[in-house]
Specification:
There is one protein chain. With 173 residues, the protein is of the alpha+beta class. The protein has a single domain, classed as Immunoglobulin-like (Sandwich). It contains three helices and ten strands; from the N terminus they run H-E-E-E-E-H-E-H-E-E-E-E-E. The strands form three sheets. Strands 2, 5, 8, 9 and 10 form a five-stranded mixed β-sheet that branches. It is elongated, with a radius of gyration of 19 Å. It starts with a helix and ends in a 16-residue tail after the last strand.
């Protein structure tokens, strides 16, 4: 029984590694500041690496239109999207239908640096640690599926200088 289980575990691990190696790009993120006060700008550095052995051409548009942002609030729920974030999500769907866009070419193992402002898309007012990661769809000509970044933690602390603190406590217009 131990041999069968061990063989299954090794086979599963090899299949998972093979799936990761087949992705044409990798995404690595890091926050410019790991700890911020509520209301402060939260910026992610995004490094895209061509993991293939050929020249890749990727869309060189606003990162907010290319990546899906996955932000979990300190209580583990999805962070509340801002009005601007909802509009950018709608714009992303329009952009994906448009086939004309600027491009950036990446040689094998070459990297491309981008920056994303998180609090333009989601509310980050609650005190605590938020977890953040990105997803990017792999274009059909490069394969199928999506690539997921690493997960980073960003600590948000109360800021008495900011009128609103949590989305639920905001004054209604």
């Amino acid at each position: 029984m131990k041999i069968i289980f061990s063989s299954f575990l090794v086979l599963s691990t090899l299949q998972a590694l093979r799936g990761q190696e087949s992705a044409p790009i990798s995404i690595s993120i890091s926050p410019q500041r790991a700890s911020v006060r509520a209301g402060a700008e939260v910026i992610l550095d995004v490094i895209v690496t061509n993991m293939s052995d050929r020249l890749l051409t990727l869309a060189a548009v606003s990162p907010e239109l290319v990546y899906e942002l996955d932000v979990k609030a300190p209580d583990g729920t999805a962070a509340v999207p801002t009005e601007a974030g909802l509009k950018k999500t709608k714009d992303a769907h329009i952009w994906r239908d448009n086939k004309t866009f600027p491009e950036v070419a990446l040689l094998p193992r070459q990297t491309f640096h981008e920056v994303i402002r998180i609090n333009d898309k989601v509310e980050m007012w609650a005190n605590g640690v938020y977890s953040v990661r990105l997803h990017r769809k792999i274009p059909a000509e490069l394969g199928h599926g999506e690539v997921e970044s690493n997960t980073v933690a960003i600590s948000v602390t109360y800021n008495p200088a900011v009128e609103k603190y949590e989305p639920q406590r905001r004054k209604q217009p």
